[in-house]
Amino acid sequence: MLIAMSSAPGGLFHPFLSLCIALLLLLLPGEAYQDLSDDTLRSLPRPGNDFDIHDGALLSPILIPRVSGTSGSTKVLNHFVDFIRTSLPEWQIEYQNSTQTTPVSKGKEVPFINLIASRDPPGVQPGDSGRLTIVAHYDSKYEPEGFIGATDSAAPCAMMMHAMRSIDAALTQKWEAEDPLSNLEEHKGIQFIFLDGEEAFKDWTDTDSLYGARSLAEQWDSEVHAAMSTFKTPLSSISMFVLLDLLGAKNPGIQSHFKVTHWAYKKLGGIEKRLRELKQFKSSNSESGTPWFLDIAKSEDQLSTAFPIGDDHIPFLKRGVEVLHVIDAHPSRGFPEVWHNTNGIPDDGEHLDLDTVEDWSILITAFAAEWMELEGFMPNGGDSGSSVQDTRAENVKRSPQGAKHYNQKTEL
Ligand SMILES: *[C@@H]1O[C@H](CO)[C@@H](O)[C@H](O)[C@H]1NC(C)=O
Protein backbone atom coordinates (compact mmCIF):
# COMPACT_ATOMS: atom_id res chain seq x y z
CA MET A 1 0.00 0.00 0.00
CA LEU A 2 2.67 2.49 0.96
CA ILE A 3 5.55 1.13 -1.01
CA ALA A 4 8.07 3.74 -2.04
CA MET A 5 10.34 2.54 -4.83
CA SER A 6 13.80 4.03 -4.76
CA SER A 7 15.03 4.86 -8.23
CA ALA A 8 17.91 2.87 -9.64
CA PRO A 9 21.25 4.66 -9.08
CA GLY A 10 22.93 6.05 -12.15
CA GLY A 11 20.17 4.88 -14.44
CA LEU A 12 22.18 1.78 -15.36
CA PHE A 13 19.48 -0.78 -15.58
CA HIS A 14 20.65 -3.87 -17.39
CA PRO A 15 18.25 -4.85 -20.20
CA PHE A 16 18.59 -8.51 -19.28
CA LEU A 17 17.67 -7.73 -15.71
CA SER A 18 14.60 -5.86 -16.89
CA LEU A 19 13.61 -8.86 -18.94
CA CYS A 20 14.07 -11.15 -15.97
CA ILE A 21 11.94 -8.90 -13.81
CA ALA A 22 9.25 -8.75 -16.48
CA LEU A 23 9.23 -12.54 -16.69
CA LEU A 24 9.14 -12.83 -12.92
CA LEU A 25 6.14 -10.51 -12.78
CA LEU A 26 4.39 -12.75 -15.30
CA LEU A 27 5.16 -15.78 -13.18
CA LEU A 28 4.10 -14.19 -9.93
CA PRO A 29 0.67 -12.68 -10.37
CA GLY A 30 0.33 -10.78 -7.11
CA GLU A 31 -3.40 -11.00 -7.21
CA ALA A 32 -4.09 -14.48 -8.56
CA TYR A 33 -7.80 -14.87 -8.22
CA GLN A 34 -10.12 -17.24 -10.01
CA ASP A 35 -13.85 -16.75 -10.54
CA LEU A 36 -16.12 -19.67 -9.68
CA SER A 37 -18.27 -21.24 -12.39
CA ASP A 38 -22.05 -20.85 -12.44
CA ASP A 39 -22.44 -24.49 -11.40
CA THR A 40 -20.21 -24.00 -8.38
CA LEU A 41 -22.05 -20.82 -7.38
CA ARG A 42 -25.31 -22.77 -7.59
CA SER A 43 -23.92 -25.54 -5.43
CA LEU A 44 -22.46 -23.44 -2.61
CA PRO A 45 -23.16 -25.13 0.74
CA ARG A 46 -26.10 -23.56 2.56
CA PRO A 47 -26.28 -23.04 6.32
CA GLY A 48 -29.73 -24.62 6.49
CA ASN A 49 -31.03 -24.60 10.04
CA ASP A 50 -27.65 -23.70 11.52
CA PHE A 51 -28.55 -20.00 11.47
CA ASP A 52 -31.79 -20.53 13.37
CA ILE A 53 -31.73 -17.90 16.12
CA HIS A 54 -33.17 -20.23 18.78
CA ASP A 55 -31.50 -23.55 18.19
CA GLY A 56 -29.28 -23.18 15.13
CA ALA A 57 -25.99 -24.91 15.80
CA LEU A 58 -23.80 -22.06 14.52
CA LEU A 59 -25.60 -18.80 15.26
CA SER A 60 -27.80 -19.30 18.32
CA PRO A 61 -24.94 -19.88 20.83
CA ILE A 62 -23.48 -16.47 19.86
CA LEU A 63 -26.73 -14.58 20.47
CA ILE A 64 -26.04 -13.95 24.17
CA PRO A 65 -24.42 -11.01 25.96
CA ARG A 66 -20.67 -11.57 25.61
CA VAL A 67 -18.94 -8.56 27.07
CA SER A 68 -15.16 -8.98 27.19
CA GLY A 69 -14.01 -10.64 30.39
CA THR A 70 -17.42 -12.11 31.29
CA SER A 71 -18.62 -15.71 31.31
CA GLY A 72 -20.75 -15.01 28.20
CA SER A 73 -17.57 -14.15 26.35
CA THR A 74 -15.93 -17.41 27.46
CA LYS A 75 -18.98 -19.41 26.38
CA VAL A 76 -18.95 -17.91 22.89
CA LEU A 77 -15.20 -18.38 22.57
CA ASN A 78 -15.61 -22.04 23.57
CA HIS A 79 -18.36 -22.39 20.97
CA PHE A 80 -15.92 -21.31 18.23
CA VAL A 81 -13.13 -23.51 19.52
CA ASP A 82 -15.38 -26.58 19.93
CA PHE A 83 -16.70 -26.10 16.41
CA ILE A 84 -13.22 -25.85 14.91
CA ARG A 85 -11.74 -28.72 16.93
CA THR A 86 -14.69 -31.01 16.21
CA SER A 87 -15.55 -30.15 12.62
CA LEU A 88 -12.42 -28.58 11.19
CA PRO A 89 -9.41 -30.43 12.61
CA GLU A 90 -7.12 -29.22 9.80
CA TRP A 91 -7.35 -25.65 11.06
CA GLN A 92 -4.67 -24.31 13.40
CA ILE A 93 -6.05 -22.57 16.47
CA GLU A 94 -4.08 -19.74 18.02
CA TYR A 95 -4.94 -17.27 20.75
CA GLN A 96 -3.60 -13.78 21.17
CA ASN A 97 -4.31 -12.58 24.69
CA SER A 98 -3.83 -9.31 26.49
CA THR A 99 -5.14 -7.63 29.58
CA GLN A 100 -6.04 -3.99 29.72
CA THR A 101 -7.96 -1.73 32.05
CA THR A 102 -11.17 -0.08 30.88
CA PRO A 103 -12.99 3.07 32.07
CA VAL A 104 -15.42 0.87 34.03
CA SER A 105 -13.02 -1.78 35.38
CA LYS A 106 -11.94 0.31 38.42
CA GLY A 107 -8.28 -0.32 37.75
CA LYS A 108 -8.70 -4.07 37.27
CA GLU A 109 -7.17 -5.73 34.23
CA VAL A 110 -9.73 -7.19 31.82
CA PRO A 111 -8.67 -10.13 29.63
CA PHE A 112 -9.10 -9.76 25.86
CA ILE A 113 -8.82 -13.02 23.92
CA ASN A 114 -8.49 -12.99 20.14
CA LEU A 115 -8.94 -16.29 18.34
CA ILE A 116 -7.17 -17.03 15.06
CA ALA A 117 -8.03 -20.11 12.96
CA SER A 118 -5.80 -20.67 9.97
CA ARG A 119 -4.82 -23.07 7.20
CA ASP A 120 -1.66 -22.91 5.13
CA PRO A 121 -0.61 -25.27 2.35
CA PRO A 122 0.96 -28.41 3.85
CA GLY A 123 4.69 -28.13 4.42
CA VAL A 124 4.70 -24.36 3.97
CA GLN A 125 6.12 -22.47 6.94
CA PRO A 126 3.85 -19.78 8.43
CA GLY A 127 6.20 -16.99 7.33
CA ASP A 128 6.06 -18.17 3.73
CA SER A 129 2.32 -18.07 3.33
CA GLY A 130 0.37 -14.92 2.46
CA ARG A 131 -2.97 -15.20 4.21
CA LEU A 132 -6.34 -13.92 3.17
CA THR A 133 -7.61 -12.66 6.52
CA ILE A 134 -11.34 -12.52 7.26
CA VAL A 135 -12.25 -10.81 10.50
CA ALA A 136 -15.20 -10.02 12.78
CA HIS A 137 -15.47 -9.13 16.45
CA TYR A 138 -17.30 -11.41 18.85
CA ASP A 139 -17.62 -9.20 21.94
CA SER A 140 -20.83 -7.33 22.66
CA LYS A 141 -21.42 -3.90 24.18
CA TYR A 142 -21.27 -3.37 27.94
CA GLU A 143 -24.29 -1.06 27.82
CA PRO A 144 -27.26 -1.27 27.61
CA GLU A 145 -27.40 -4.31 29.84
CA GLY A 146 -28.40 -7.43 27.95
CA PHE A 147 -27.31 -5.98 24.60
CA ILE A 148 -26.99 -8.80 22.04
CA GLY A 149 -25.38 -7.26 18.98
CA ALA A 150 -26.82 -9.68 16.44
CA THR A 151 -25.51 -7.70 13.47
CA ASP A 152 -22.69 -6.41 15.67
CA SER A 153 -21.15 -8.95 15.08
CA ALA A 154 -22.76 -12.27 16.06
CA ALA A 155 -24.10 -12.87 12.56
CA PRO A 156 -20.76 -12.06 10.86
CA CYS A 157 -19.05 -14.58 13.21
CA ALA A 158 -21.57 -17.26 12.18
CA MET A 159 -21.01 -16.36 8.51
CA MET A 160 -17.29 -16.88 9.00
CA MET A 161 -17.89 -20.29 10.61
CA HIS A 162 -20.02 -21.29 7.65
CA ALA A 163 -17.42 -20.05 5.16
CA MET A 164 -14.63 -21.96 6.94
CA ARG A 165 -16.41 -25.29 6.79
CA SER A 166 -17.64 -24.65 3.25
CA ILE A 167 -14.13 -24.34 1.82
CA ASP A 168 -12.40 -26.81 4.14
CA ALA A 169 -12.64 -29.98 2.03
CA ALA A 170 -11.84 -28.06 -1.17
CA LEU A 171 -8.64 -26.67 0.38
CA THR A 172 -7.56 -30.16 1.36
CA GLN A 173 -8.30 -31.52 -2.10
CA LYS A 174 -6.56 -28.67 -3.87
CA TRP A 175 -3.45 -29.05 -1.75
CA GLU A 176 -3.44 -32.81 -2.24
CA ALA A 177 -3.82 -32.43 -5.99
CA GLU A 178 -1.07 -29.84 -6.36
CA ASP A 179 2.32 -29.96 -4.79
CA PRO A 180 2.39 -26.58 -3.08
CA LEU A 181 6.15 -26.67 -2.66
CA SER A 182 6.72 -26.90 -6.39
CA ASN A 183 4.32 -24.04 -6.95
CA LEU A 184 6.09 -20.97 -8.28
CA GLU A 185 3.35 -18.64 -7.20
CA GLU A 186 3.27 -17.16 -3.74
CA HIS A 187 1.89 -19.67 -1.23
CA LYS A 188 -1.61 -18.77 -0.21
CA GLY A 189 -3.11 -19.47 3.18
CA ILE A 190 -6.22 -18.23 4.89
CA GLN A 191 -7.14 -17.18 8.41
CA PHE A 192 -10.31 -16.20 10.19
CA ILE A 193 -9.92 -13.91 13.18
CA PHE A 194 -12.52 -13.60 15.92
CA LEU A 195 -11.57 -10.38 17.68
CA ASP A 196 -12.39 -9.44 21.25
CA GLY A 197 -12.96 -5.98 22.74
CA GLU A 198 -14.07 -3.97 19.72
CA GLU A 199 -16.73 -2.09 21.64
CA ALA A 200 -16.12 0.87 23.92
CA PHE A 201 -17.12 0.36 27.54
CA LYS A 202 -18.02 4.01 28.04
CA ASP A 203 -17.50 6.47 25.19
CA TRP A 204 -15.61 5.58 22.03
CA THR A 205 -12.07 6.93 22.26
CA ASP A 206 -8.68 5.79 20.99
CA THR A 207 -8.09 3.93 24.24
CA ASP A 208 -11.67 2.86 24.99
CA SER A 209 -12.33 0.72 21.89
CA LEU A 210 -10.57 -1.83 19.68
CA TYR A 211 -8.84 -3.49 22.65
CA GLY A 212 -8.28 -6.80 20.90
CA ALA A 213 -7.40 -5.38 17.48
CA ARG A 214 -4.86 -2.92 18.93
CA SER A 215 -3.11 -5.63 20.87
CA LEU A 216 -3.06 -8.09 17.96
CA ALA A 217 -1.79 -5.55 15.42
CA GLU A 218 0.96 -4.44 17.78
CA GLN A 219 2.07 -7.99 18.53
CA TRP A 220 1.96 -9.12 14.91
CA ASP A 221 3.95 -6.09 13.87
CA SER A 222 6.78 -6.84 16.32
CA GLU A 223 6.93 -10.64 16.11
CA VAL A 224 9.42 -11.78 13.48
CA HIS A 225 9.12 -14.91 11.37
CA ALA A 226 12.04 -17.33 10.92
CA ALA A 227 15.04 -15.95 9.04
CA MET A 228 14.67 -15.91 5.24
CA SER A 229 10.88 -16.12 5.42
CA THR A 230 8.94 -14.54 2.56
CA PHE A 231 7.13 -12.33 5.05
CA LYS A 232 9.02 -10.71 7.87
CA THR A 233 6.15 -10.50 10.35
CA PRO A 234 2.69 -12.04 10.84
CA LEU A 235 1.35 -8.59 10.04
CA SER A 236 3.06 -8.48 6.66
CA SER A 237 1.76 -11.94 5.79
CA ILE A 238 -1.81 -10.60 5.78
CA SER A 239 -2.50 -10.35 2.06
CA MET A 240 -5.82 -8.62 2.65
CA PHE A 241 -7.72 -7.77 5.84
CA VAL A 242 -11.41 -8.25 5.11
CA LEU A 243 -13.43 -6.90 8.01
CA LEU A 244 -17.10 -7.87 8.36
CA ASP A 245 -19.22 -5.71 10.64
CA LEU A 246 -22.87 -4.70 11.09
CA LEU A 247 -24.17 -7.32 8.66
CA GLY A 248 -27.52 -9.08 8.88
CA ALA A 249 -30.07 -6.32 8.31
CA LYS A 250 -32.07 -6.25 5.10
CA ASN A 251 -30.88 -4.22 2.10
CA PRO A 252 -27.38 -3.33 3.30
CA GLY A 253 -25.43 -0.57 1.62
CA ILE A 254 -21.71 -1.32 1.39
CA GLN A 255 -19.34 1.41 0.23
CA SER A 256 -15.85 0.92 -1.07
CA HIS A 257 -13.55 2.67 1.37
CA PHE A 258 -10.04 2.08 0.08
CA LYS A 259 -8.55 2.45 -3.38
CA VAL A 260 -6.03 -0.29 -2.90
CA THR A 261 -8.69 -2.95 -2.27
CA HIS A 262 -11.29 -1.58 -4.69
CA TRP A 263 -10.52 -4.42 -7.11
CA ALA A 264 -11.52 -6.97 -4.44
CA TYR A 265 -14.61 -4.92 -3.51
CA LYS A 266 -15.63 -5.15 -7.17
CA LYS A 267 -15.11 -8.90 -7.06
CA LEU A 268 -17.49 -9.14 -4.08
CA GLY A 269 -20.02 -6.95 -5.89
CA GLY A 270 -19.59 -9.12 -8.99
CA ILE A 271 -20.32 -12.27 -7.00
CA GLU A 272 -23.43 -10.60 -5.56
CA LYS A 273 -24.64 -9.79 -9.07
CA ARG A 274 -24.01 -13.31 -10.35
CA LEU A 275 -25.68 -14.96 -7.34
CA ARG A 276 -28.76 -12.82 -7.98
CA GLU A 277 -28.79 -13.66 -11.67
CA LEU A 278 -28.49 -17.35 -10.81
CA LYS A 279 -31.41 -16.96 -8.37
CA GLN A 280 -29.27 -17.99 -5.42
CA PHE A 281 -30.08 -14.95 -3.30
CA LYS A 282 -32.86 -15.60 -0.82
CA SER A 283 -33.28 -11.99 0.29
CA SER A 284 -34.08 -10.89 -3.22
CA ASN A 285 -34.77 -13.37 -5.93
CA SER A 286 -35.02 -10.69 -8.54
CA GLU A 287 -32.05 -9.80 -10.62
CA SER A 288 -33.00 -6.17 -10.26
CA GLY A 289 -32.90 -6.18 -6.44
CA THR A 290 -31.05 -3.23 -4.91
CA PRO A 291 -27.35 -4.03 -5.10
CA TRP A 292 -25.54 -4.17 -1.78
CA PHE A 293 -22.21 -3.04 -3.20
CA LEU A 294 -23.00 0.55 -4.05
CA ASP A 295 -19.69 1.59 -5.58
CA ILE A 296 -19.23 -1.27 -8.00
CA ALA A 297 -19.33 0.96 -11.08
CA LYS A 298 -16.96 3.56 -9.63
CA SER A 299 -13.29 3.83 -10.44
CA GLU A 300 -10.73 4.06 -7.66
CA ASP A 301 -10.57 7.83 -8.06
CA GLN A 302 -14.30 8.27 -7.57
CA LEU A 303 -14.44 6.69 -4.13
CA SER A 304 -15.68 8.88 -1.32
CA THR A 305 -13.44 9.18 1.67
CA ALA A 306 -15.84 11.43 3.53
CA PHE A 307 -16.71 9.16 6.43
CA PRO A 308 -13.75 7.49 8.08
CA ILE A 309 -15.23 4.73 10.21
CA GLY A 310 -13.58 3.66 13.46
CA ASP A 311 -13.47 -0.12 13.50
CA ASP A 312 -11.14 -3.06 14.03
CA HIS A 313 -9.24 -2.41 10.82
CA ILE A 314 -7.73 0.86 12.08
CA PRO A 315 -4.70 -0.54 13.98
CA PHE A 316 -3.90 -2.67 10.91
CA LEU A 317 -4.57 0.09 8.38
CA LYS A 318 -2.20 2.39 10.29
CA ARG A 319 0.53 -0.21 9.84
CA GLY A 320 0.05 -0.45 6.09
CA VAL A 321 -2.16 -3.54 5.86
CA GLU A 322 -4.54 -3.60 2.88
CA VAL A 323 -8.10 -3.39 4.19
CA LEU A 324 -11.46 -4.24 2.67
CA HIS A 325 -14.12 -2.95 5.05
CA VAL A 326 -17.42 -4.72 4.52
CA ILE A 327 -19.74 -2.75 6.77
CA ASP A 328 -23.34 -1.70 6.29
CA ALA A 329 -22.81 2.05 6.31
CA HIS A 330 -25.04 3.54 3.67
CA PRO A 331 -24.04 7.05 2.48
CA SER A 332 -27.50 8.41 3.30
CA ARG A 333 -29.08 5.90 5.73
CA GLY A 334 -25.95 5.25 7.76
CA PHE A 335 -25.62 2.12 9.90
CA PRO A 336 -28.47 -0.42 10.19
CA GLU A 337 -31.53 0.83 12.06
CA VAL A 338 -30.84 -1.60 14.92
CA TRP A 339 -27.33 -0.23 15.48
CA HIS A 340 -26.56 -0.06 19.23
CA ASN A 341 -30.32 -0.17 19.94
CA THR A 342 -30.33 3.63 19.58
CA ASN A 343 -33.60 3.78 17.59
CA GLY A 344 -35.55 1.70 20.09
CA ILE A 345 -35.17 -1.41 17.93
CA PRO A 346 -32.93 -3.96 19.63
CA ASP A 347 -30.08 -5.47 17.64
CA ASP A 348 -31.09 -9.02 18.57
CA GLY A 349 -31.81 -12.30 16.80
CA GLU A 350 -35.46 -11.42 16.19
CA HIS A 351 -34.42 -8.36 14.19
CA LEU A 352 -31.99 -10.11 11.92
CA ASP A 353 -33.05 -10.68 8.35
CA LEU A 354 -32.12 -14.34 8.12
CA ASP A 355 -32.37 -14.52 4.35
CA THR A 356 -29.83 -11.72 4.19
CA VAL A 357 -27.60 -13.47 6.73
CA GLU A 358 -27.67 -16.62 4.61
CA ASP A 359 -26.95 -14.67 1.43
CA TRP A 360 -23.95 -13.06 3.10
CA SER A 361 -22.65 -16.42 4.19
CA ILE A 362 -22.61 -17.83 0.66
CA LEU A 363 -21.23 -14.57 -0.75
CA ILE A 364 -18.30 -14.67 1.69
CA THR A 365 -17.80 -18.37 1.02
CA ALA A 366 -17.64 -17.68 -2.72
CA PHE A 367 -15.17 -14.83 -2.26
CA ALA A 368 -12.87 -16.98 -0.12
CA ALA A 369 -13.14 -19.83 -2.64
CA GLU A 370 -12.27 -17.51 -5.53
CA TRP A 371 -9.36 -16.01 -3.63
CA MET A 372 -8.03 -19.49 -2.81
CA GLU A 373 -8.67 -20.61 -6.41
CA LEU A 374 -10.91 -23.53 -5.43
CA GLU A 375 -12.86 -23.90 -8.68
CA GLY A 376 -12.84 -27.60 -9.50
CA PHE A 377 -12.55 -28.55 -5.83
CA MET A 378 -15.75 -27.08 -4.39
CA PRO A 379 -18.84 -29.29 -4.29
CA ASN A 380 -20.43 -29.06 -7.69
CA GLY A 381 -23.85 -30.64 -7.79
CA GLY A 382 -24.17 -30.23 -11.54
CA ASP A 383 -27.93 -29.93 -11.05
CA SER A 384 -27.71 -26.69 -12.95
CA GLY A 385 -31.38 -25.84 -12.72
CA SER A 386 -31.53 -25.46 -8.97
CA SER A 387 -32.59 -22.17 -7.46
CA VAL A 388 -33.14 -20.96 -3.92
CA GLN A 389 -36.56 -22.62 -3.79
CA ASP A 390 -35.08 -26.00 -4.71
CA THR A 391 -32.25 -25.68 -2.24
CA ARG A 392 -34.68 -24.75 0.49
CA ALA A 393 -36.54 -27.98 -0.17
CA GLU A 394 -33.25 -29.89 -0.22
CA ASN A 395 -32.25 -28.43 3.12
CA VAL A 396 -35.42 -29.72 4.66
CA LYS A 397 -34.81 -33.12 3.18
CA ARG A 398 -31.19 -33.22 4.27
CA SER A 399 -31.79 -32.11 7.84
CA PRO A 400 -34.46 -34.40 9.19
CA GLN A 401 -33.15 -34.12 12.72
CA GLY A 402 -33.43 -30.37 12.52
CA ALA A 403 -31.71 -28.23 15.08
CA LYS A 404 -28.59 -30.04 16.09
CA HIS A 405 -27.81 -31.38 12.65
CA TYR A 406 -25.29 -29.50 10.58
CA ASN A 407 -26.32 -29.02 7.00
CA GLN A 408 -22.97 -30.38 5.87
CA LYS A 409 -21.18 -33.53 6.76
CA THR A 410 -19.80 -31.78 9.82
CA GLU A 411 -21.52 -32.40 13.10
CA LEU A 412 -20.84 -30.91 16.47
C1 LIG B 1 -5.14 -17.34 26.05
O1 LIG B 1 -6.47 -17.51 26.48
C2 LIG B 1 -7.03 -18.77 26.17
C3 LIG B 1 -8.49 -18.76 26.52
O2 LIG B 1 -8.67 -18.38 27.85
C4 LIG B 1 -6.25 -19.85 26.90
O3 LIG B 1 -6.77 -21.12 26.60
C5 LIG B 1 -4.80 -19.77 26.46
O4 LIG B 1 -4.04 -20.70 27.18
C6 LIG B 1 -4.25 -18.37 26.66
N1 LIG B 1 -2.94 -18.32 26.06
C7 LIG B 1 -1.90 -17.83 26.67
C8 LIG B 1 -0.62 -17.85 25.90
O5 LIG B 1 -1.98 -17.36 27.77
UniProtKB/TrEMBL annotation:
Residues 1-32 form the signal peptide. It comes from the Eukaryota. GO terms for biological process: proteolysis. Keywords: Acyltransferase, Hydrolase, Metal-binding, Protease, Signal, Transferase, Zinc. Residues 378-412 are annotated as: Disordered. The keyword Hydrolase applies. The keyword Kinase does not apply. GO terms for molecular function: glutaminyl-peptide cyclotransferase activity; peptidase activity; zinc ion binding. Residues 126-366 form the Peptidase M28 domain. It is an enzyme of class 3 (hydrolase). Its EC number is 3.4.-.-. SUPFAM superfamilies: Zn-dependent exopeptidases (SSF53187). Belongs to the peptidase M28 family. This is Peptide hydrolase. The lineage of its organism: Eukaryota, Fungi, Dikarya, Ascomycota, Pezizomycotina.
